[in-house]
Amino acid sequence: QSQDRVFNFAAGPATLPEIVLKKAESEVYNWRGSGMSVMEMSHRGKEFLSIIQKAESDLRTLLQIPSDYAVLFLQGGATTQFAAIPLNLCTPDDPVDFIVTGSWGDKAFKEATKYCKPSVIWSGKSDKYTKIPSFDDLQQNPHAKYLHICANETIHGVEFKNYPIPNNKESLLIADMSSNFCSKPVDVSKFGLIYAGAQKNVGPSGVTIVIIRKDLIGNAQEITPVMLDYKIHAENNSLYNTPPCYGIYMCGLVFEDLLAQGGLVEVEKKNMKKAQILYDTIDQSNGFYRCPVEKSVRSLMNVPFTLEKSELEAEFIKEAAKEKMVQLKGHRSVGGMRASIYNAMPLAGVEKLVAFMKEFQARHG
Ligand code: PLP
């Protein structure tokens, strides 16, 4: 990567591939001979239509999205989906089940209480969100409309490695994939709906992607705001109102880059390698560094860790920043450190971090 760039371990908005930023830079005044920036284009003009259609088609290729699923490019972040999902899929009396493996799942649950009758059927809170439940032990409500999971908890670093199956034929699996979207292949057909904010793995903030089985669209509660109604967005190909045009364009460039890397099988291999050298460094530090998350469910994307000598944490973060490794402070709710190593974090960034960790330990261990 360029000398003037830092290695940015932020959880989101997060680092983007340099190749994508350079491409955007080269097109910023004049997109492909149009004489305009994508920021200045009509969202109904042929230029922008070609951009959004290509973005959708490349995402479909990447995730092998079946044709009976719609892809929506929305706004309002994943947080808006916490409300939109129950509003679109439930009546106010419908029960739904939540598995809560971290703060985001908890927020999604709390928002849903306004629009349907959710229950938490499993919570990792008493273990400080370091576990994923065994699916055999889940007590699902046989009448639940859906089972909601957060596929990767960004703050706690807990990731589902496989997925629970809802216990009745009509029930749906729904996943917040904000922080591991497009980091590995996913069998979309197992889900009723997948949603993700773009600002971790696939673009800038301001774009939220929803992938929904088409037959689920069209049942929104009457009070649903027009901007939250999937039917409105699906019928208008995400162009009911002015979409986040530039953000969608950037996502499109990221999708092109992921395809050029060989698709999500290759991307996952790189992510596994990065995560492994970082977890190995933590686990082989004789307790100097610790990751509290159960080994089998550690996230490939967000790696939280603490120092045995917690009084050294501020120094660790400060010294790392001096060496151009930034945003390593853990979320304010859990403390410690967190290295987010999304798709766009180069292997060189993780190698530099682990070299620094070893050197820091040699000085302070
Ligand atoms: N879900 C997860 C897993 C997240 O990591 C985040 C944000 O960091 C959110 C939801 C909320 O997303 P947004 O800020 O886009 O509303």
- Cα Rg: 21 Å
Instruction: List the ligand species.
Output: pyridoxal-5'-phosphate
Content-based structural category? alpha/beta
Q: Please state the average pLDDT score.
A: 97
Classify the beta-strand content into a percent band: 15-25%
Pfam family, one: Aminotran_5
Catalytic activity: 4-(phosphooxy)-L-threonine + 2-oxoglutarate = (R)-3-hydroxy-2-oxo-4-phosphooxybutanoate + L-glutamate; O-phospho-L-serine + 2-oxoglutarate = 3-phosphooxypyruvate + L-glutamate
GO molecular function, one term: pyridoxal phosphate binding
EC number: 2.6.1.52
Overview of the structural elements:
There is one protein chain. This protein is an alpha/beta fold and 365 residues long. The chain contains nine helices and 14 strands. The strands form four sheets. Strands 2-10-9-8-5-3-4 form a seven-stranded mixed β-sheet. The longest helix has 20 residues. The chain starts with 6 loop residues before the first strand and ends with a helix. The model has no long low-confidence stretch (mean pLDDT 97). Bound molecules: pyridoxal-5'-phosphate (PLP). The site of pyridoxal-5'-phosphate (PLP) has 11 residues, from helix 3. Pyridoxal-5'-phosphate binds next to helix 3.
